[in-house]
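A quick aside before the break. I want you to see a complete sequence-to-structure record at least once, exactly as it would be stored in a machine-readable document. Don't worry about memorizing anything.
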Amino acid sequence: MKTLFLLLGLAALEPAVIDEVEQIKARMLQVNQAIWSYAEPGLEEHRSSRELRTWLEESGFSIRDGVAGMPTAFVASYGSGKPVIAFLAEYDALMGVSQKTVPYREARDDPAVEAGHGCGHSVFGTGTTGAAIALKRLMAKEALARHRKALRNPGRGDGGCEDVHVEGRSLRRC
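That is the input. The structure line, written in tokens, reads:
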């Protein structure tokens, strides 16, 4: 985020954003644990998507669901004007990856459970969403006119869906 602040000429606000993150830290941990426990594979992350959308709506973002024809894809927006600042969130679990907190890939113990978050996408999705919310909160307090979006990139971990998202022009709308 330091680079983003430098590009926008907001480097002096970095400590304030860190403070905003600290203020939402408990919610970030709660959301991450929920998404971790769901362990939904790409394009099937209905509960995970709902978890992030609810948090974003509660934080003042408007939600556009079903982006690029994918039911778990969404764009959350707040504000208007330029520049548009976009955060890309991934939160799909990967097939065949365990839920063990180990620093290496390990298959699931239970073959009936297909996917896991050993990839870290639960953290990535929660962290980028938290960053968007923290920045929005600060910009609202500081009356900074910027347009923020949180983009949902469905199924990123299992390949291919990123191209669909781009072909669906969601990223170009920024």
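Two observations worth writing down. Residues 159-167 have pLDDT under 50 and may be disordered. The CA atoms of residues 15 and 77 lie 24 Å apart. We'll return to this after the break.
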